[in-house]
Amino acid sequence: MRDRDDEEERLRTVALENARSIVLTRQRAEEALRKQTKWLQITLASIGDAVISTDASGQVMFMNAVAEALTGWNAAEAQGRSLPEVFHIVSEETRQPADNPALRALREGTIVGLANSTILIARDGTERPIDDSAAPIRDEVGEQAGAILIFRDITERRRAEAALRQKEAELRDFIENATVALHWVGEDGTILWANRAELELLGYVAEEYVGRNIVEFHVDRQIIDDILHRLLNKQEVRGCEARLRCKDGAVKHVVINSSGLWEGERFLHTRCFTHDITDRKHAEEAQAWLAAIVDSSQDAIVSKTLDAVITSWNQGAERIFGYTAAEAIGRPITLIIPPERLDEEPAILERLRKGERVEHFETVRVAKDGRRIDISLTISPVRDSTGRIIGASKIARDITGRKRAEAASTEQARLLRELAATGLTVHSAGSLDSVLQVVAEEARRVFTAHRAIASLVGDDRGQMTRAVSTSPGYDRWREYVMPPSVAGARAEVCRTNRPLRLTASDLEAQPASAQLNANINDFPAVRSWLAAPLVSRGGKNLGVIEVCDKDDGDFSEIEQAVLVQLTHIASVAIENARLYGELLEQDRRKDEFLALLAHELRNPLAPLRNGLEVMRLAGDGDGLAARTRAMMERQLSHMIRLIDDLLDVSRISRNKIELRRSRVLLADVLSSSVETARPSIEEAGHELILSLPDQPVYLDADLTRLAQVFGNLLNNSAKYTPRGGNIWLTAEREAAEVVVSVRDNGIGIPAESLGTIFDMFSQVDRSIERSSGGLGIGLALVRGLVEMHAGSVKAESAGAGMGSTFTVRLPVLEDKEISTPIALEEDEVRLTSPRRRILVVDDNPDSAASMATMLKLAGNEVRTARDGIQAVKVAEAFRPQAILMDIGMPRLNGYQATRLIREQPWGRSITIFAVTGWGQQADKRQAEEAGCDGHLVKPVALTELEKVLAEAERSD
Quick one: angle between helices 557-602 and 432-446, nearest 10? Predict the structure, then answer.
């Protein structure tokens, strides 16, 4: 029994020892766990990211200080709450609750990566973008004990990313709008991208340039081939000069700098900078021409610094002064100034420093061999690019011969002075008879002769056709018959076009006038005779000027030279007088032409006006006739005004036409001109293509006059373009101007006619190509009216069969000059609507044409069809976005045509409006059943049409 008790005691002792050991072990484990937990909490609290841990049910067990700051919950309040309550997140795009990553980690037992576009909403409602991730927490046996969530505030990162995107956008914008031309080219030469400067340099839009091979735009194939070869071999291209061909055919000189962009060994594209040096090239060419002119000048052309040092010396200077350029350049200009004239140079330099020009300064210079040379100097200041005077350029003309001649004969000087005054008198004479009279009188006065004759001859035998003579004291003889020797001399002068002198010994003793006058002793004998020919610009003899007898013997060589100069002056005056007479005759014929033209044009106006009155008296039920009548009255008034202006066309040259200026829309001007020219365009079967600015353009102009300008140009294109041709009417805004061009693919203009095409009554001979030639005043009116609007007009043509282009430039009214915007009337054409493809179907040609014109002017691309069958065919080819379908048509009505179009795959998405005069409810229902999207009752206002088209686009 005792043994048993002892055994139990031993067992209890062992059990107690084991229990103590177990308790001690557990205490040690718990202490280690507490330390580990404490260390983990410290670690999680000290990291920069926010940390939240949950238990297996998703309730918050722990959160660090960063998590407290971001969520707005402190750890004590959050503990035991569900995670979505503390960690409230939504999608940044949808604002819907986002999938919680920690709950997903608990649910799937996997690590959940960073989420994108997540917004954390704090306890106080503050929102901030975050990145988050989560992972499950497992115990020692691998069971899920909870989850840990890590997240961070990415507000600053988002700001940095936004700033980076902004910088990238700015960089793209900078490159796109850089003033230097840039483009990329692929390995095969295809243009991959080009900035605006590159496109503007060559005159293309991106769609016309990008995607084409760069070789197409280089004039010199060898140069671009070499550039591409060097780039593909990893070489750089620097300062390579090339020539590029622009869209308008012009050639630009450029300098190309380029390198390749590589990705490893793969070539991506070139990076090419194109610098326009066309102006520099032209300047170099002009400079080369100027240098050639300077070198070939017979005058000495010398430049010098303000210190009087010679910097250039042409061949004329070498010839005059004897020094070569090598001997003169770098030496002072005093090299050629005589000692007694050295004081001239400081005075000249002082005037040059003030910016003054010294003209025709006569002085003396000394040559290398010591000769004194009389020269005339013209000295101009030379400025640098900033306008600062840096030197002088002088032209020295050798006038030694003239000075010697002046010194040798004071009589010659007197004659030259008299001749100068005579020139003014002769040229102011006017008519041909007046010129001859003045020439004869001036010749007698200048040479102090007793008699002078100015005559026109019909042949080289000297037969006079018109003569004027003057002889004081002997006026009763209107004609003077010279001795036979003089008559022969006159014929020789006319035949050879050379002057001739006869002395007293050459003449017969008795005067030939004795045959005509019984009082022979009253007329003195001819003692001397001098004649010189009148010669046209083409070298043809016109006549002769003769002077005879003077107080002091025979005529001298000097007097002969002066008479030759007088005949030169008289010849020009005679030709001008003849031209003036021809101009007067042309003016007379022009007035007769205009009077006849006005008479013929006015004949149809009376019945036209009577017809309008009949329409007015007959009444107007639905208003259509009133609108038609108003339009006809406008056109009639316009026609009458144009005819009145034809009667006063001579006033154009005197700028006396009155403009009725007002602020007008360019669109209104062009609309009126198209309306005027439409009949001739349609009659010839041409297609008119319009291209107008997106924004309104305002002009200070006379609308009717400008409409007349472009109407004339459009009619010209219609007239001189073979049937079925194309006419382009284009308007573009360029800075403070608008450029309007009328271009056609017609018969063109010969090069020799381009210079006179705008002259009054000028007509190009086009009889082979065209039987009708026009009146010859249309383009003259165009130029006159455009210039009166402070604009310009230019004609261009590549030659016969190459079409022609007339370009008009007009100043526009700037925004600051437009005080208040002009409100569009309900039926006014709008040019700001989006461009659409529209098919107008109407069996009434006028209705279809006017609707098409209105829509085209509103910026749309328009086709027309005259019946239902044609409508289906045109719609299939044209694929319009909208169709305006008339209902009552022959062959196939509008409802039937609509059904056929709707049956086609390409026709199901087209917007179709029934446009008809039938407006009952049943008509609208029938249009809907046929497949129409809407029903419009004629006449349709443009504003209403724009509205329904826009609504249809929005509904699509």
Answer: 160
Q: Which range among 399-413, 673-687, 928-942 shows the weakest confidence by mean pLDDT?
A: 399-413
**Nearest CA-CA partner of 170 in 159, 180, 178:** 178
What pLDDT is recorded for position 768?
Answer: 30
Q: Are strands 181-185 and 144-153 parallel, antiparallel or unpaired?
A: unpaired
Strands (E), 56-154: 60-63, 88-91, 118-121, 127-138, 144-153
pLDDT number for residue 350: 86
- For residue 830, what is the DSSP state? P
DSSP 383: E
Q: What is the DSSP letter of 100?
A: P
- pLDDT at residue 11 greater than cutoff 80: no
> How far is Cα 74 from Cα 888, in angstroms, rounded to an integer?
81
Q: Which residues pair with 309 in a beta bridge?
A: 332
pLDDT of res. 212? 92
User: Is 668 exposed, middle or buried (CB count within 10 Å of its CB: 0-12, 13-18, 19+)?
Assistant: middle
Confidence check: pLDDT of 824 > 50: no
Supply 260's token pair. Answer: 């390749």
Residues 6 or more apart whose CB falls under 8 angstroms from that of 360 comprise 376, 377, 378
Number of residues assigned to the chain: 956
Distance of alpha carbon 813 from alpha carbon 811, whole angstroms = 7
**Containing H/E element for 296?**
helix 278-296
What's the whole-number mean pLDDT along residues 419-436?
69
Q: Phi and psi at residue 527, in whole multiples of 5°?
A: -100, -30
Note the pLDDT of residue 353.
Answer: 86
Average pLDDT rounded to a whole number, residues 58-73: 90
* Mean pLDDT score across all residues of the chain: 78
Which amino acid does the sequence have at 629?
R
Q: Which residue has the tokens 């200026």?
A: 661
Judged by average pLDDT, the poorest of 148-157, 424-433, 605-614 is: 605-614
Q: Is the pTM of this model over 0.85?
A: no
Q: Report yes or no: 836 and 858 within 8 Å, Cβ to Cβ.
A: no
Q: Are 224 and 234 in contact (CB under 8 A)?
A: no
Pick the closest to residue 883 from 905, 858, 857, 864 (CA basis).
864
Burial environment of residue 654 by CB neighbours within 10 A (0 to 12, 13 to 18, 19 or more): exposed
Q: Which has the closest alpha carbon to 602: 648, 644, 657, 650?
A: 644
Question: Residue 338 and residue 261: Cα distance in Å, rounded?
Answer: 69
Question: What is d(CA 187, CA 194) in angstroms, rounded to the nearest whole number?
Answer: 16
* Sign of the Cα pseudo-torsion (248, 251, 255, 259, in order): positive
Q: What are phi and psi of 343, to 5 degrees?
A: -70, -10
